[in-house]
Specification:
This protein is of the alpha/beta class and 338 residues long. 43% of the residues lie in helices and 20% in strands. α1 packs across α2.
Length: 338
Amino acid sequence: MKNINLSVDGGGTSLRIIAFDDGLNLTAQSKSGSVNPNFESGKKIGENISEAVNLLLKNLNRDFKIKNIYETIVGSVNFFNETLTRESGGLTKDAIFHVISEGHSHLYAASLRNKGGVALAGTGSGAIYCNKGGMIHIGGYGIPVGDEGSGAWIGIQGMSAAVKYISGWGEKTLLTEKLYKYLNIKTPDLITNKLYGKDVNQRILFAGFCPYVAECERTGDKLAKDIIYSAGRDMGLQMISVLKRAESKKMINDGTKNPVIYASGGAWKGTPYMLEAMTETICGVYRGAICAHGLFDPVMGGVIKFIFDKTEEYTISAQYEEHLKIEFKDYLFKFDDF
């Protein structure tokens, strides 16, 4: 019977599961919808978890034993564990659940290390600094009072710019045409029904417009460019706040002013300009700062932690890294529609 390990990442947009064996070979994968209880009903979360778990089990060969479950799930860990145990017919007694914080999961996947900064911009946003087991995490207050720089925030700004032009008091922008296309409407009187319908998950709807804003920025639209710049700048300001807190707590204690920051999450995938704006902002305070897109999507956090546990080191060898890039190539960071 073959040992199988799971890496699970669940948040405001999706639940993703990777199954891999002890040799770090991908054996199955699945995906479903949001599991964040702040923005989704308990019934819907249960349906999404069951969908992802059952699809994963269907994709696996029957002759397997789930040994390790590495999980980063916003608010629904117990729900997931109960569903996995029930749908799999019961886990063996030696199955081990490893809960990984959101910050560490993003850092592991982005950097293959356990120390550094993470500018998290997915559906929501946050700024994180980790030093081994310690972590500082700010943000995550949700739309509309927070989540600056996130996919939902970018989507709202883009929709707002489009609606202002439609109403006759905003600048002309390509975002207007994109909004009509995104909402699948032809006249402005239908916009409110699409945005505020009874069954609409507004946060996901707003985040879904983020790629359109990025597309407009890449084609030179001024307002879209301003929005993307503001998103990167705000992520940079949040990171500066985190870095200063980390310094005050002696978490950055190597005497340098060259922090390394990794951009992680889907909002970064629309255009390189957002990272450029964040880098400019951070380097205005930390001149030697290094900002880069993360290597892997956050669902890979459990795979990286598995290697850390196996080698008893918080570094990944060049050989391991090369293997991961080949075996898990679908989870490497890549820009959308480039």
